[in-house]
Amino acid sequence: MLELYTHLTPNNVPFSLKTAEEIFRKFLVYEGSAILLGEVDGKPVSSCTLVIIPNLTRGGTPYALVENVVTHADSRSRGYGKRILDAASERAWDQGCYKVMLMTGSSARATLDFYERAGFKQTKTGFQKRRAHEVR
After folding, report:
1. What is the mean pLDDT of residues 31-41?
2. What is the C-alpha end-to-end distance of the chain, expressed in Å?
3. Which residue range or ranges hold the N-acetyltransferase domain (predicted)?
4. In angstroms, what CA-CA distances link 108 with 57, 105, 115, 129?
5. 45 sits in which H/E element
6. Is residue 115 packed enough to be buried (19+ CB in 10 Å), middle (13-18) or exposed (0-12)?
7. Quick count: other Cβ atoms within 10 Å of Cβ 44?
8. DSSP labels for 49-93?
9. CA torsion, points 32, 33, 34, 35, in degrees to nearest 10?
């Protein structure tokens, strides 16, 4: 799984397997969160993180956030990324979410076209604020 993430952020700061296991355990107890993993012949080829967020508007209907969407470079353009996003969306719909959101830091046309082919529309403006000294 960690090797797959190198195809998302090649210069990601590595950390220990023990730390990764601790983080993964948090996902297991964080209600509404999941890391979806697509495999082919036992090899991870695509993944995304899904978080279901409780909501005090829209009659209490939750919404979902998708992050860390990645497909192994050797497995791109085969539909795996779309399938993992479809699975995340289905899980969100099953949890009663009224929308699924994601943001991308990429402005590459191919990336934006991929998200549109996966059913996402660029209808909002995203903003972010990062710590002055980014923690990796």
Report:
1. 93
2. 18
3. 1-136
4. 34, 9, 11, 22
5. strand 43-53
6. buried
7. 20
8. EEEEE--SSGGG--EEEEEEEEE-GGGTTSSHHHHHHHHHHHHHH
9. 160
Domains of the chain: 2-117 (3.40.630.30)
Please give the pLDDT value at position 14: 79
HSE-CB of 51 using CA atoms within 13 angstroms: 11
Nearest to 36 by CA among 3, 99, 95, 80: 80
Distance CA(71)–CA(48), nearest Å, equals 9
pTM of the model: 0.88
Confidence tier at 136 by pLDDT (50, 70, 90): low
Residues in the chain: 136
Q: Are 88 and 38 in contact (CB under 8 A)?
A: no
Q: Which amino acid is at 127?
A: F
Query: Measured between alpha carbons, how far is 38 from 42 in angstroms, rounded to an integer?
Result: 9
List all residues 6 or more positions away from 106 whose beta carbon is below 8 Å from its beta carbon: 112
